[in-house]
């Protein structure tokens, strides 16, 4: 008889709509937290850990229903879940195999997480990256930041654009010296 505990090993496949060739496969104990899964994803993709992220449990149409957040926002008495305290097996099962991992909350950019299998094992001590293939999406869109900065500059310049000097004279007349 083997010693150790029997655990349910959850196998996940993670994909991105931005990077079609990208695929990440992770195995972890169902009793691990979403924070463990988050850290494994972040480390595998070499993302900066200070960026906010959340997991979402979608409904059958793919709309985000339940948020499992990195920070405790505890809003309006609604049930709220934080990654550090929420176990994987509380929300993921064969009947509910999908998650959305939003790694860029400001631009609503996400990875799609699918449960591909559950195995009985007794030897997985920490999350394991089984496959990391293709180019992952960048964590922060620098082009978006640059475009937003340029559009703001354009708006600022528009504020200071007084038009043609002749129009100014029509509107305000001649200025007298004091």
The CATH topology comes to Structural Genomics Hypothetical 15.5 Kd Protein In mrcA-pckA Intergenic Region, Chain A
Name of the CATH superfamily: MM3350-like
Poorly predicted regions: none
Over the alpha carbons, how many angstroms does the gyration radius reach?
25 Å
Largest sheet: 8 strands, mixed
Number of strands: 8
- Spatial order of the strands in the main sheet? 5-4-3-6-7-1-2-8
Would you list the SSEs in sequence order as H and E?
A: EEHEEEEEEHH
Query: How far do the termini sit from each other?
Result: 102 Å
Multimeric state:
single chain
| Total domain count | 1
Mean pLDDT: 82
Description:
With 178 residues, this protein is an alpha+beta fold. The protein has a single domain, classed as MM3350-like (Structural Genomics Hypothetical 15.5 Kd Protein In mrcA-pckA Intergenic Region, Chain A), CATH 3.10.290.30. Helix content is 21%, strand content 31%. The protein has helices at 34-45, 142-159, 165-172, and strands spanning 7-15, 23-29, 54-58, 64-69, 81-82, 98-104, 109-121, 128-133. The radius of gyration is 25 Å and the shape is globular. The protein starts with 6 loop residues before the first strand and ends in a 6-residue tail after the last helix. The model has no long low-confidence stretch (mean pLDDT 82).
Write a concise keyword list for the protein shown above.
eight-stranded mixed beta sheet; alpha+beta; 3 helices; 178 residues
């Amino acid at each position: 008889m083997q010693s150790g505990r029997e655990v349910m090993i959850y196998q996940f496949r993670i994909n991105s709509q931005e990077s079609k060739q990208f695929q990440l496969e992770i195995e972890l104990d169902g009793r691990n937290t979403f924070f463990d899964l988050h850290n494994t994803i972040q480390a595998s993709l070499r993302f900066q850990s200070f960026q906010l992220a959340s997991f979402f449990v979608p409904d059958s149409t793919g709309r985000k229903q339940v948020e499992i957040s990195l920070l405790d926002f505890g809003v309006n008495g609604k049930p709220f879940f934080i990654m550090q305290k929420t176990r994987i097996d509380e929300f993921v099962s064969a009947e509910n195999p999908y998650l959305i991992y939003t790694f860029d909350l400001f631009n609503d950019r996400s990875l799609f997480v699918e449960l591909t299998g559950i195995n009985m094992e007794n030897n997985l001590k920490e999350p394991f990256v089984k496959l990391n293939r293709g180019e992952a999406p960048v964590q922060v869109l620098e082009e978006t930041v640059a475009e937003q900065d340029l559009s703001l500059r354009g708006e600022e310049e528009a504020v200071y654009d007084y038009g043609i000097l002749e129009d100014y004279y029509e509107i305000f007349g001649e200025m007298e010296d004091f």
